[in-house]
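User: Before I run my own analysis I want an independent prediction to cross-check against. Here's the chain; please return only the structure tokens and, at the end, one sentence I can use as a sanity check.
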Amino acid sequence: MGDVPENMMSSANKYIIRGSIAITSTLLLVCLGIIIYIGPWINCDILEGLLSLNNYLGGMGFHQRIELDDDNIIKQGILSYWPPGQYVYSWAVAQLLHINIGNAVTVTSFLFLIAGFICYYYLLLHFRFSKKVIFFTILVLTYQRFFTGLFLKMNAVDVYLIFFSCATVLLYEKYYTVNKQQHRAGILLLMLLTFLGGLYSKNSFTLLIISVTAYYVVTHFIKAVKSESGKIKKLFVSGLPALVALTSVLVFYFLLYAQNRTPFSQRVEANTLQLSFLKILNIFIKPAIQSLGACFSLDAFMLHIPSVQNSYFSYFTDFTWQGIAGSLIMLVPLVYAVVWFHKKSESKSFALIAAIAVIVYTGFFAVAIIRQTDVYAEDRLFLPMILLVIPIYASAFFEGSKWLKLSMSVFIAVSLFFGIASIPNTFQYYKNSTEINSSKLMSGFIVHTPYDDFKELKKIGNAIKDNYTDNNLIMAFNAERFFALNVNVPCIMYNAVKNADVNDIVAKNTSFFHRHQIRYMTIVLPSADKPLNIDESLLIKKETYNIYTLYIISTIPLGN
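Assistant: Structure tokens:
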């Protein structure tokens, strides 16, 4: 076959660009319209954050959770797994626009999404990707399983990282190309704000900061060392972004997590890692297939065929030899695509940045497995790295050899299939969700719950609001039930309070109640549970509401 005429190629490119824009825009606008009409669906992660916000506004510490330990002592600790950006950004938008938190979640997420895609477009254009590849990349990204399953519910702060990740790389590119000192100073300030903004959205953004900083600082250090003039100045200029990156990470972790455990230090109970040759392979194969395979839903094929009912997947507990063999077969063309792009493209630096990001992400989760930490990899955590890898795969799809085009076609087809197939599951969640629309703080969103008991909880909330909204601390057994009470007072999450001695709780936490001026402690329990053992002089109110029992207890011990 002869060469395809240039005008036909140009026409095909236009169809690809227009088609990608149309299909992506349709999905985004349809989902946005549904979310505005129904309300955003809020999952447990953001509910934990909103609960922390509720407690902060009620006089407790910032970004903390209040818990009752095994000795009946109330403990306050940092909400380590979920950074404050997941609710602080939305809360700021709600205050600025005078809208409820549910609408603010939608507005904030969509603004970050649009800003992220614009930034992504300019990032890829900067690295000389064709517009055909750029828009096709955005289409593939938008129809990822974890994107359609989570992001388009407008409740996952991961979507914020599209903006922060692209802005990070662009700022590094800008910093090392400008000549004026004052311009560099401004860029360094923007870097600090971008790093902190991304970290406050997601702890795992640290991995991208490490990846990008390592690439740019090391390469420009080498250039500075090889330079014949102004070596000291060039070394100083080259190292400043590393100082900014380190400062942002230290500020985030030490100010927010000071004297508290970070997620990486929390270990899974019970075990020592018994190493075998198979497990040693797993340590490195798991993160590799997770990181590279997450781009096309292929990570889910490690051991089982994925279900379209699942929005995303995390590590499977064990591998088989067949699973490892299958994973390696999938990894070969993916890795080759990166190597091919590095050789063929004018923007070799982009391939190197992507490769370093893959190594850093893979290395982190390999160490997490070795340490047996309570950190597991959901494919959405790899989003910043995926942003760098997918354009390379899209380029291989359009411009690679026949076998590379074939393998990329299969991967992209699988990705689009599972992404589209997961959309009905998203709407099923809406169908089985309940709206919380009466709370002053927590209005305008819906929560997924299999129980039909919210009406009873609202009755209890009304009973509390009549006389006990001031100086009250509520004990609730999950965040959804607490928000249904609609009382806007501090809340403590409990696990075993139903078997605890309430008199002992009151006696042991006198200083906590006094410090926070708490006059009442309210406990809501399923009526089927054993009644609480409470001294009659402390019990102010006890009422049964169908399947729940309400206890309002005085926190002032006997004799005071």
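Sanity check: The radius of gyration is 26 Å.
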